[in-house]
Design a protein that fits this description.
Helix 2 runs antiparallel to helix 5, helix 3 packs parallel to helix 5 and helix 4 packs antiparallel against helix 5. Helix content is 52%, strand content 16%. The protein has 5 helices and 7 strands, in the order H-H-H-H-H-E-E-E-E-E-E-E.
């Protein structure tokens, strides 16, 4: 009997077998040596240090102080506006009163008003006053004299007008708040007659009746000048070269100076 040989549909060459074996070995080596790729670390904030905490607390404290200061400034502005409003209303009321007095000006009413001013000035003469208050008193006295002159000529409206102006100066003398250097808008009072004054020390001549106003020049001690108006604690003065405002505490009446 003859031995049967196995049947293969195709013939596999030795080269193909070796190539397949070599590729399989490379794949196994690659799988064994490949390392997994690690995920990138997510960044984390460093833990706060004691110095950082102190700085943050200091910033918070300063911010609180700023808020408190802003509130104080706001309240101060509100108070100043309120004071200015009250003063303006008082001035309006005084103006209305003066108009009413002028309309009702008669011989008896004018005589009564003149007598009240005389009594008030007599009281002020018995009271120790500053140099500035003496300036105002002199202005009131001169206004009273003019009012009396108009009264003698039966010009009661003109007389009452001068009496009202005299009362304004008297009210200013007794107003204690006027002696403070503030931002309140006091009324401007023109002098009936200019006053000759002298500086008692070196003083700033300012452009406006305000402690923060522009300084025009510095007046030396014993500088002679003329005052023509008053506003609060300020006097409007005229020198040989300039006109401006000076605090009343820096001046004295020239005629009162001892030789």
């Amino acid at each position: 009997m003859t031995q049967a040989t196995p049947f293969f549909p195709f013939k596999i060459s030795n080269l193909a077998v070796y190539s397949a074996f070599f590729l399989c070995a490379l794949n196994l080596v690659g799988c064994a040596t490949k390392e997994p790729v690690a995920d990138p670390l997510v960044g984390q904030e460093p833990a706060p240090t004691p110095q950082y905490e102190d700085l943050r607390n200091e910033i918070a404290r300063l911010e609180k102080i700023i808020v408190e200061k802003d509130e104080l400034i706001k309240n101060q502005k509100i108070r100043q506006q309120s004071q200015a409003h009250v003063l303006r209303e008082a001035n309006k009321e005084a103006t209305r009163t003066q108009v009413k007095l002028h309309r009702l000006a008669t011989k008896p009413s004018t005589a009564s008003a003149i007598a009240e001013v005389e009594a008030a000035l007599e009281h002020l003469k018995q009271t120790k006053t500053s140099s500035f208050d003496q300036i105002l008193r002199i202005q009131a006295q001169r206004l009273l004299e003019t009012a009396t002159l108009f009264y003698s000529k039966d010009q009661y409206v003109a007389a009452m007008n001068h009496v009202s102006q005299a009362n304004n100066f008297i009210a200013l003398i007794v107003d204690q708040n006027r002696k403070r250097v503030t931002q309140v808008d006091y009324s401007l009072l023109e002098f009936h007659m200019p006053m000759r004054l002298r500086t008692i020390k070196n003083v700033f001549l300012r452009k406006e009746p305000n402690q923060y106003a522009q300084v025009l020049t510095t007046l030396k001690k014993d500088t002679l000048l003329t005052a023509s108006a008053n506003q609060g604690p300020w006097l409007r003065v005229q020198t040989d070269k300039n006109q401006g405002w000076v605090l009343n505490t820096m001046l004295e009446i020239e005629e009162n100076r001892n030789p």
